[in-house]
Structures are given as structure tokens and as C-alpha cells.
Amino acid sequence: MENLNYGEIINLLAVLGISAAVAGFMAGLLGVGGGIIMVPALYYAFTVLDFELATRMHLAVGTSLAIIIPTSIISTKTHMEYDAVDFKMVKSFGIFILLGVIAGTFLAVNLKTPTLVLFFSIFAFMVGLFFIFLREKLVENPKTISNIVKNISGIVIGFISVPLGIGGGSLMVPFMRTFGYDIRKSIGTAAAVGFLISLSGTITMIMGGKIIDNINTPFSVGYINLLGFAVFVPVTMIMARLGAKAVYKIDKKLLSKIFGTFLLIVSIRSFVEYLNII
What we know:
Layout: H1 6-30, H2 35-48, H3 53-80, H4 87-110, H5 113-134, H6 147-164, H7 169-178, H8 183-212, E1 220-221, E2 224-225, H9 226-246, H10 252-277
Antiparallel strand pairs: 1-2
Helix pairs in contact: 1-2, 1-9, 2-3, 3-5, 3-8, 3-9, 4-6, 4-8, 5-10, 7-8
């Protein structure tokens, strides 16, 4: 860290600042939590800072989950102003999300960094395709979701979210849209579910880093890097509220396609990084 020159420091802060702004805005606007943008940005930062390769992706994932906690609170509160959060749905997911998060944490701390990078790359590619081609084409009439479907889906969403460092919105929004829920209600509810995932995921990633792997990375608690958290949170909290308000004012179809294209680029870049570190 001490070997960085001023130009590299400015570049690093610029990348983190821009990523934080985009992540926060997209979190509020599209209900995706922002983790899918924050993880590659944090991974880049930890690479520049020369953190150990073995724990680099784990720190990016854990720190992303911690950042999503305040971001999801701001986003949820803003969507509540427009009556766009289905708390019955959120409550029905509760314990099953937690079970999935615990299992997902066990998977995350036991995966090697290259495997986590590849996992993230594949997921980003799939979500990118969803935003480009499917987001606005699902059914519009809400259908009853059985308890067994909710329970299984909650476990799956929690399980997948932790190794990816996301709040689950990338899974929750298409899940609700598949059953005919309004896009705005889907986004608002996904933000609330993101709080459950990020809070429980942060706790388990701290415990996983401290107890299971005994991580001693500078300025970190378990797999949560406090510097990354401090840089991102102020920006994401402001931008999440702006993004949530923008949901009710702008046409999201074009933005969804732009965001999807961006995710495909992120996916390809992550895959190239995977090839470089295997």
C-alpha cells in the first residue's frame, strides 16, 4: 500500500468513487443491491493494494455485503414512501434466507479465489442477459406463490448471494416478476430482502474470516475490509435514494439494456482475470 504513487492513489479513489455512485444508483433504481458492481471494483482495489491473492475475492465479497446494509435500508425506506414494498413476502422469506446465507458462507470461505471469480463472471453474464432481453417481458398478473416455492427460493437466493457478495436483488426481482408482480413492487421488495441477506451475510463472513480462516488483512474484520466500507457507504447511501426516486420518473427499459450490456462487459473482464490467476 505504501508503494503506491499519487497517480495510482487518485486512479484508485476515482474507480472506487465512480463504482460507488453507479452501484448506489442502480441499487435504488433496479433493486439489484449494487454488489454486482461493487465486487469487481473492490477486487480491483485490493489487487492494486497488493492484498493476498488467496483472500482477495473473499474480502471483496464480504465487504460488498457490508456496504449493502445501509444502502438497502435507504433504498427500502424510499420505496416505502411509494407503497412499493411487500413486507408479507419479506417475512415469509426470513428464516429460509438465513439458512441459505449460512450454507452460502460455508461455500464462500472454502472456495479458492479463482473459483469465486469464475462463479461471479458466470452469474454477471446471466444477469446481464436477463436485463437486456427478459426484464420487461414477464407476465403482469400476480399469481399466488406457494409456501414451498417461497421456502426453497429463499434458501437458494440466500445461498447464491453470499459467494457473489450481492443482496439478492438480481435473483429476487426476476423471481417476483415471474409470478406477475409489478416491476416497482418487485424492486422495492428486493431491496428489503437485500437487507436481510446483507446483514446476515456480513455477520457470517466476519465469523468465517475470524474463526474459520483466521484472516489478518490490514484494516479488516474477518472478510470485511473497513477502508472499502468507509469509501463506498457515504456515496452509495446518497445515490441509492436518488435511484429509488428515479424508478417512478424515468423509462427503465433503455437503462435496463445499458446496465445489462455493462454487466456483460464486467463478466468478460472477470473471466479474463480468472484466466490470468488460475
